[in-house]
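Next up, a chain.

===
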Amino acid sequence: MNVLKQFRLVAIAEGISFLVLLFIAMPLKYGADMPLAVKYTGWVHGLLFVFYIYALLQVWQQYKWNLRMMSLAMLASVLPFGTFYFEKKYLNNI
């Protein structure tokens, strides 16, 4: 699998895990007193975030991305729906 395709898949998975953490696990923790929802979802999201950074570094190296593109990819990883926007706007043209 090429590195760009791998990055796209990881970006989508990381984005989904972030949304699940924010909009499902956090309300379960504070609204239904289920702290394990955040514990396990947070663990999965953290692992996917590490994979995202690793895949981003591979894409940066192979495609010679500039600092702006790397910064946008990093910003996208910490904003809800950010990885989906980044993937649609910037990765469809590569």
In short: Helices lie at 3-31, 35-63, 67-77, 82-91. The first helix runs from residue 3 to 31.
